[in-house]
Amino acid sequence: MLELPLIAKSVVSHFQQCVREDKALELYHAGIEALAVQVSMPFSMDTSVAQYVSFNVFTHFLEGLRKVLPSEVFVSALLGSAERAVFELAFPHLSAQDFLSLFPFEQWSVESSSQSLKLSFLVSNSSLNGIEAELFLIVYSHAYFKSQQTDINKPVRYDLVSVSASALSELRIQTETPQFIGQNETCISYNPIDRDCSIKAVSTATTSTFKVTQALLPYIGRVDVDLVMFGQINRMGKRTIQRALSEEGTTFRTIKEALSFEFAKRVMTEQGYSISDIALHLGYADASQFIRAFKRANGITPYQWKKGHVE
């Protein structure tokens, strides 16, 4: 099965909104916009039916953001967006399982006793290519936990999977709090509280087909992403993707065509796009090529489908 972690579109869109609205970042907005294009971040996500974004792509964006921004500004942006997310993404009303489903966690848990209080999470190996992604998940996990247990104090220890001491030092994050790198799991330790708040949430297994479908969907009708480009922006080999999908009886082309035709049907129904416009948006050479592909998959032409579904 592919290691292709996903993050909820709502979280990514909210983070980007916070970055755009942060007055302290005004001088860097042009660089940030250029970065989003450079790493192939999905755009116009508010009009997309996608529910998720590739966490690999978002991680690439975070890594670039740390280079664009001074260290203290980058850390401040992470903290500020997480603080806003508590209210604007309704963290106090989310169960641990609901929170886990927004992020690429495989497991998210709290162990509580009279001697210790520890929040930990596990993600796939590919999710933590750099320290930026791990810090993002730490900041949001702490913000969520604080919204659930309002009387917890500041963390007293951090355990990080990341092994780069230099990157951590460059960010100058709360040097008074002990930080241990190269650990087996990410962990935030707190002073214990006088009640048991232990909880454990585990993600549901998903197929490679589901992961590729969700990671590709934000680009449909916006950018023509082929298999090679999909592999590049997700940091995985073309053959790795092909092999995983083949084991499930499908191909990248099959998935892409199905998503493209769903996009075509939706915009024909809701927005009245012409066949030529749709073909252009989906990356076809011309309308006739799109019509042939549509008929091959659906048994009728787009015109015939539109006539039967649009009043």
TrEMBL record:
Annotated ranges, domain HTH araC/xylS-type: 210-308
Keywords: DNA-binding, Transcription, Transcription regulation
Cellular-component GO terms for this entry: cytosol
Top-level taxon of origin: Bacteria
UniProt xrefs under Gene3D superfamilies: Homeodomain-like
GO molecular function: DNA-binding transcription factor activity; transcription cis-regulatory region binding
Keyword Kinase tagged: no
SMART domains on file: HTH_ARAC (SM00342)
Keyword Transcription regulation: yes
PROSITE patterns linked: HTH_ARAC_FAMILY_2
SUPFAM superfamilies: Homeodomain-like
PANTHER family: HTH-TYPE TRANSCRIPTIONAL REGULATOR GADX
Protein's name according to its UniProt entry: HTH araC/xylS-type domain-containing protein
